[in-house]
Specification:
- The complex is a heterodimer of chains A (about 450) and B (about 230).
- Helix content of chain A is about 50%, strand content about 20%.
- With about 450 residues, chain A is α+β, with helices and mostly antiparallel strands.
- Chain A has 2 domains: about 10-70 and about 295-439, no CATH class; about 75-285, no CATH class.
- Chain B is of the alpha/beta class and about 230 residues long.
- Chain B has 7 helices and 9 strands, in the order E-E-E-H-E-H-E-H-H-H-E-H-E-H-E-E.
- Chain B has a 6-stranded mixed β-sheet with strand order 5-6-7-3-8-9, with helices on both faces. In chain B, strands 2-1-4 form a 3-stranded antiparallel β-sheet, with helices on one face.
- Chain B has a single domain (about 35-60, about 75-225), classed as 3-Layer(aba) Sandwich (Rossmann fold).
- The chains are: A alpha+beta (about 450), B alpha/beta (about 230).
Chain lengths: ~450, ~230
């Protein structure tokens, strides 16, 4: 502009206006120019969404973490198996030493053999997965000692032969002991001390034709990890019993590996697979064995996040509506501000900041409310969930990264919701608005 | 700065109304000396307010030149035009002039804050101006607590806060009773005399117009009389 001076900064005026327009709803009576609901409703809209996000995803996180723990109670962090097919590996102690030395992340190794069997009680049969384990080392690769029903029991107790109880009396002669999932044993009405029979699903050719292999076992203890998949399917015996049952005395199905960092299993497994390629072996991480479940949980989390973002988005719509109504109601004031020298962009910024401030208030309120609710549900048992979490609060895992993401996302949505009102206010024609027609 | 506060030459404003065109200003030319006090009179629709809006850079001309304090406000961006309005023009409108959420003092301070002024210094200047217009005891009162005449006094103080080259008043006493209107007229005269501020007042009040040193009469977008010529 000819003869003009340096343009000024009106930021002090914008902050002054913003503060007053946000607080005018709650000001003294004479200052009140709008209902408190004008700001409270959109703030509440965002807060509800953020609160729901915080609570639901943290409880889901707690649930998933608990589930992973339960999976890892029974399943090893890594299994070393044959590279292709379902073959077995030769039972060589040297191989255990070799694998244990492959990575400083490995805590311990333990061989196992497993096969599908039919478990026959006096009343009914059921299919099960038999794990023959090395009782000397399996306690270090499987952490379910504390989930056993018999106090002070451990996997090394499988070494004992146990005499079964028949009609309340201890029978003569002992049989190998077994530990089975509680749900599985309940399904066949098997009790502790009862003699059961393992029946092979692979029939052997005998004198009388095809006869399946059988092995009597006695229930020494049951376990309950909380993972239905394991509690309803798995039974353990000592290695030599399972090997003899399978007629595979010098073979293992694989080697269990326990890691310092179970969540790094995929990376370490890839490394071990590379190193064991020449032995025709590969490493299978626990995440690979539970790929479908983990993928489903991840998908559920994404779906839930999407739904919760939609809730926040709906809250943001109320910011748009509130601000558009404010632009209409305050058109004359905005025109006066233009006549006083406020720029179009200043007015636009004022409304963007107003939307962002409402969003910020909503995010902070929602986070506070969500964290308070999480404190409550994680400590106080909920009557509706007594079956699943008797006497305990819900498991909760707060992911600060997720909360940061939802806070930033909500703020961005709040600003985006203010764009239309900002454009509307920038379009105000001061001449038309200040003329008598607009009064 | 030139000797003239305002220089207007061949100013034309045409509003397109569908296929028709409404000529609100049809070649208006005049100058206003620095410190002069000028009344613009005329019937409704004669182009008075349009002229005021263009001189104050709220509206732009279809054709012609406007220079205020030697500056042509229509060659710059919105940022520069806004700056021009803020620093060189003071507006007093007919009614609903003030921001209702802000006290009298805050209303007067606002243009100073927009100009980037120090809040404390601007506040002191605003207080002095409100005391000058007789509202020293009403600084914290909100527009809803002030009478129409008092509101106009606040608006006059606000128009003067940035010591503008030109104060534009559009029917400043149009909504007031005769006593309050007379007080406002007297205040304008005093301000013009004391501060040497150039005043351009659109009014229907013939008594007020005749009390000012110069009158321009308009009809159909043209000047039909100028007592200063």
């Amino acid at each position: 502009m000819e003869g003009n001076h340096q343009p000024r900064s009106g930021s002090a005026a914008i902050w002054f206006l913003l503060k007053r327009y946000l607080l005018s709803s709650w000001g003294k009576r004479r200052r009140k120019t709008q209902s408190p609901l004008g700001v409270a409703l959109p703030v509440a809209g965002i807060a509800v969404g953020v609160c729901a996000f915080t609570v639901i995803l943290s409880v889901m996180g707690g649930f998933v973490q608990g589930l992973k723990k339960r999976i890892l109670v029974v399943e090893p962090h890594i299994e070393i198996v044959v590279r292709e097919g379902f073959g077995r590996i030769p039972a060589k102690t040297d191989l255990l030493k070799q694998i244990a030395g492959l990575s400083d992340q490995i805590l311990s190794v333990s061989p196992f053999i497993k096969t599908d069997v039919i478990l026959q009680s006096r009343k009914k049969p059921i299919t099960a997965l038999l794990w023959g384990i090395d009782t000397a080392t399996a306690d270090r690769t499987m952490g379910f000692k504390s989930y056993l029903s018999v106090a002070d029991a451990s996997l090394s107790d499988l070494e004992k032969d146990v005499r079964p109880e028949v009609n309340g009396k201890t029978a003569e002669g002992g049989f190998p002991s077994m530990i089975g999932g509680e749900t599985l044993l309940e399904a066949i009405d098997a009790e502790l001390g009862e003699r059961l029979t393992l029946v092979s699903t692979q029939p052997d050719e005998g004198l009388g034709g095809f006869v399946p292999a059988q092995q009597p076992v006695v229930v020494y203890s049951s376990f309950k990890t909380g993972s239905v998949t394991h509690d309803s399917k798995i039974i353990f015996t000592r290695m030599d019993v399972a090997q003899k049952f399978l007629d595979a005395e010098d073979e293992w199905s694989g080697i269990q590996v326990a890691l310092k960092e179970p969540l790094e299993a995929e990376t370490i497994a890839a490394d071990l697979s590379r190193k064991l390629a020449s032995e025709n072996l590969r490493a299978k991480a626990w995440t690979e064995s539970n790929k479908a479940l983990l993928k489903a949980l991840k998908l559920e989390r994404w779906g839930m996040s999407f739904v919760l973002y939609m809730v926040i988005l709906v809250g943001c719509f109320s910011i748009t509506i509130t601000l558009v109504l404010a632009v209409r109601r305050k058109a004359r004031e905005m025109a006066i501000l233009r006549s006083l020298g406020l720029r179009r962009t200043d007015l636009g910024l004022l409304y963007l900041f107003k939307g962002a401030s409402i969003g910020l208030l909503g995010v902070v309120s929602g986070l506070c409310a969500g964290l308070i609710i999480l404190q409550f549900v994680s400590h106080v048992p909920l009557p509706l969930l007594q079956d699943a979490y008797s006497g305990r609060g819900l498991p909760v895992l707060i992911s600060w990264r997720d909360l940061l993401m939802v806070s930033i996302g909500s703020l961005l949505l709040s600003v985006a919701a203010s764009v239309w009102p900002a454009i509307e206010v920038m379009r105000i024609d001061p001449v038309e608005t200040l003329s008598d027609r607009a009064v | 700065m030139s000797q003239n506060a305002v220089e207007i030459s061949d100013l034309q404003k045409i509003y397109p109304m569908g296929e028709l065109q409404l000529e609100a200003l049809a070649g208006v030319s005049f100058t206003v000396a620095a410190g002069e006090c000028l009344a613009i009179v005329g019937e409704s629709g004669s182009g008075k307010s349009t002229l005021l809006h263009i001189v104050g850079a709220l509206d732009s001309p279809t054709k012609g030149q406007v220079r205020v304090g030697g500056m042509n406000p229509f060659t710059g961006s919105d940022r520069e035009v806004s700056h021009f309005r803020n620093r060189h023009i003071g507006f007093v409108f007919q009614h609903n002039n003030l921001l209702p959420e802000f006290s009298a003092l805050e209303n007067v301070v606002m243009p100073g804050l927009i100009a980037g002024g120090e809040p404390e210094a601007t506040g002191k200047r605003a207080t002095a101006l409100l005391e000058r217009v007789g509202l020293g005891k009403r600084l914290g009162h909100f527009p809803g607590q002030l009478s129409g005449g008092e509101q106009q006094r606040v608006a006059i103080a606000r128009a003067l806060i940035n010591q503008p080259v030109l104060v534009l008043a559009d029917e400043p006493s149009g909504n007031l009773d005769s006593r309050n209107a007379a007080n406002i007229h007297q205040l304008f005269a005093e301000i013009n005399r004391e501060l040497k501020t150039t005043l351009l007042v659109v009014t229907h009040n013939q008594e007020f117009a005749h009390s000012l040193p110069r009158r321009i009469e308009m009809r159909d977008g043209r000047i039909i009389g100028d007592s200063g010529r």
